[in-house]
From TrEMBL:
Residue stretches making up the Origin recognition complex subunit 3 N-terminal domain: 59-366
Name of the protein in question: Origin recognition complex subunit 3 N-terminus-domain-containing protein
Taxonomy, superkingdom: Eukaryota
Keyword Nucleus: yes
Family: Belongs to the ORC3 family.
Occurrences of domain Origin recognition complex subunit 3 winged helix C-terminal (ranges): 628-728
Organism of this sequence: Lasiosphaeria ovina
Biased composition (Low complexity): 56-68
Length: 729
């Protein structure tokens, strides 16, 4: 057992049985008054409604100060040569861009669980107070546990406003036993009705709570909660078990029985978050406990659907000022799917990407005011930075290949001409984004591809949109459609053009697609006419691409059966229908297309595709970092003594680094005596460092303690003189 160090300092009078009071002299009084004036007086917290308004004003003022501080946190780039106006413009661009997206994200999150919230609120609100059973809502959340936080936060806000009840969230980690669960319920339910300025720690160190009448109650007795809620005629408390299946069945049984016994004084309602099924959850409860409950089952929107809705609104929507690149988006989506991360992690990743782009990219100022930047803000450093971009080089090369030599020469030599081209890229960026979103909306409206929208969007950014490519291969399925399928397809496309997409914040563009709408209308009318003509002939209308056009022929030659495929004879109507399908495929291929995002000039100003900051922040690798630091300490210390080691063992390395090298060569169990012998052989008298045994032993214990602190070794339970190896790198 480790010794506990006690630093208590005892005074001379601490052990005296009696004290003699003597009146202080005038000098003592003067000294006491001076010390009292020097010592600050103890301030008492006093809460009132007026103070609440003051605190809100102070909070608003503090928020304004934080915004100003965040704005001032943007440092000048170009080695400090960036002008203050350009720095301010970058900061204002971020402050303008992110709140718009954040508002759309919160709207999507509220609407995602709207039906579930309304159903649960109606069920809890209509629960009869006279019943002897406890209202229980069983919410099927699915296997993604990370998505439960958002749902129960929304339930807390909605139910508190709609039913005027006290809401308590319980997790299995917070309530290992009955006493801890009751403490949590009483504390949260009692504190939810207090003002923020009130003291929430009325419990003393003995576990007693003092009521308004001066009586003391145990802080795990529901009588305490009943006294705290005594002002209400029929107080209601909603207890939500967020991860119900992780709770011990005996604990749930005891809590439900206790709630039922208090039901005549406190109206308890319970909510259970279930990841599997109601049958499995009910099997964990006693039948006598199940009789105390009457409830209903509620299904929620799965996390994948919520992620796609947030993706459409915040990432792909037309309001997104910054476009995340395909590589970064792939990492974000894969992390959400593989690591089952919550939607809040995805939102935090988006915000971090915005912060990185506006903070570290001086060209992000071009996104201000939809690209209409005052040319007076542009510095020579901006034009020089643009000429170093990969998109600038590609643009000049394309101009040379197209024999636009004057244009290419002006871009390289004339700063004024380059500034004019830069200012034109804002409108070209908007045109590219609208073409991208319109093409994706039409492809999804066809209903032919089953690929998720996230994959389609990432592929469109990386490779562009081409209906003949593997990702957007819709031409062949369209050609195999029958007449009814072609007519239905055209109607869906026309409807998509007229209505747009509210999820993508994409308005309809019927007025800009007169040629496409007219061509689709002609093809639809022609196909409908052909269908009417074939009804008289009683022959189904088909094309040469359809399966009905393939005929299997059987031929018997010399008592052998031979099978061969042949094409059926097409009628005049069939040939006309085939021609209409070819026309439809050509029209769609002409109007549904988009170039890759990286093919645009100056895409670095609005496309963020850096994965390193995201991985370092959201996917940290401490073990790899520790391993590299201990293997090559010179890369971090920059000292001359470690520079010549070259990743090998040297006596001049720190003791922890030497022990780490020996640690890598050892097995699962390491004999401490052998480890000490190997270490002393590296740093002892015969080595370059030449430490004596006592000094080397001190360094050895220090290094071994640091390895233990970093989680590489621990004391072995099998052998007292060994340490166990915990990591293999």
């Amino acid at each position: 057992m480790a010794e506990i160090e006690d630093n208590t300092v005892f005074q001379q009078d601490d052990h005296r049985a009696a004290y003699i009071f003597s009146a202080p002299s005038s000098e003592d009084q003067h000294h006491h008054a001076a010390s009292s004036a020097a010592r600050p007086t103890k301030r008492r917290r006093v809460s009132s409604k007026k103070d609440g308004s003051k605190s809100r004003q102070q909070t608003a003022a503090a928020a304004g100060e934080e915004t100003a501080a965040a704005r001032s946190a943007f440092t000048p780039l170009f080695n400090g040569a960036e002008s203050p106006d350009a720095v301010r413009l970058r900061a204002e661009s971020f402050e303008t861009a992110w709140p718009v997206l954040d508002a759309r994200i919160q709207h999507v999150l509220r609407e995602a669980n709207r039906n579930t919230l309304d159903e649960v609120t109606s069920f809890i609100g209509n629960a009869e107070a006279e019943t002897t059973q406890i209202p229980a809502g069983i919410i099927i959340t699915g296997p993604n546990i990370a998505s439960q936080d958002l749902l129960f936060e929304q339930l807390a806000d909605t139910l508190c406003k709609a039913t005027q009840a006290r809401f308590v969230r319980l997790r299995s980690a917070e309530a290992p036993n009955l006493k801890a669960a009751l403490k949590k319920i009483i504390k949260d339910a009692g504190a939810s009705g207090r003002d923020d300025d009130d003291d929430a720690d009325d419990d003393d160190e003995t576990g007693l709570s003092v009521g308004k009448d001066g009586r003391k109650y145990l802080n795990y007795d529901l009588e305490t909660l009943h006294v705290a809620l005594g002002a209400n005629e029929s107080p209601r408390v909603i207890v939500a078990f967020q991860d119900s299946e992780a709770f011990d069945s005996g604990l749930l049984t005891d809590l439900i029985a206790l709630f039922h016994s208090w039901h005549d004084r406190i109206r308890f309602s319970v909510l259970f978050g279930i990841a599997t099924s109601v049958q499995l959850f009910q099997a964990r409860l006693l039948k006598s406990t199940a009789r105390y409950l009457y409830g209903a089952q509620f299904d929620v929107v799965q996390a994948g659907s919520v992620l796609e809705s947030v993706f459409k609104s915040a990432v792909a929507g037309s309001q997104a000022m910054v476009r995340l690149g395909p590589s970064l988006l792939r990492n974000l989506v894969e992390r959400q799917q593989d690591q089952v991360a919550g939607i809040q992690v995805f939102i935090s990743s988006l915000k971090y990407a915005y912060m990185c782009h506006f903070y570290a990219n001086p060209l992000s100022m071009f996104l201000a005011a939809d690209g209409h930047v005052d040319r007076q803000l542009l510095q020579p450093e901006h034009t020089q930075a643009v000429r170093t971009l990969g998109s600038f080089k590609a643009h000049v090369e394309r101009a040379v290949e197209a024999r636009q030599l004057n244009h290419a020469q002006s871009l390289l030599d004339d700063d004024s001409y380059l500034v004019d081209q830069i200012l034109k890229q804002g409108q070209r960026r908007q045109d590219h984004v609208m073409r991208l979103l319109r093409s994706l909306h039409l492809i999804t409206a066809m209903g032919i591809l089953s690929t998720p929208f996230t994959d389609l969007y990432i592929s469109a950014l990386a490779e562009g949109i081409d209906l003949s490519s593997d990702m957007f291969a819709v031409v062949d399925p369209i050609k195999r459609l029958g007449p009814d399928g072609i007519i239905s397809l055209i109607r869906r496309i026309v409807s998509a053009i007229e209505t747009g997409s509210p999820e993508l914040d994409l308005p309809g563009w019927e007025s800009e697609a007169d040629e496409l709408m007219a061509a689709l209308g002609e093809i639809r009318d022609e196909v409908e006419t052909l269908v009417e003509r074939t009804k008289d002939n009683r022959n189904p209308l088909k094309s040469k691409y359809g399966a009905q056009n393939k005929v299997l022929r059987t031929t018997v030659v010399a008592q052998k059966v031979q099978l061969s495929r042949d094409t059926a004879t097409l009628t005049e109507e069939d040939n006309a229908f085939t021609k209409a399908i070819d026309s439809l495929a050509d029209i769609l291929s002409q109007h549904i297309h988009c170039d890759p995002a990286e093919s645009l000039f100056l895409h670095e100003a609005w496309l963020y595709d850096s994965k390193s900051p995201y991985r370092d922040v959201f996917i940290p690798r401490p073990a790899t970092t520790f391993g590299r630091a201990l293997t090559r300490p010179h890369d971090y210390l920059g000292c001359a003594c470690c520079g010549n080691a070259g990743g090998a063992v040297a006596s001049t390395l720190p003791a922890t680094a030497i022990l780490y090298h020996l640690y890598l060569e050892a097995g699962a169990l390491i004999n401490v005596a052998d480890l000490w012998s190997a270490y002393y052989a590296s740093v002892g008298d015969e080595s370059e460092l030449g430490l004596d045994e006592r000094t080397a032993l001190v360094h050895f214990y220090q290094g071994l303690a640091e390895l233990r602190m970093m989680g590489f070794v621990r004391q072995s339970k099998k052998k007292a003189d060994h340490v166990a190896k915990l990591k293999w790198l």
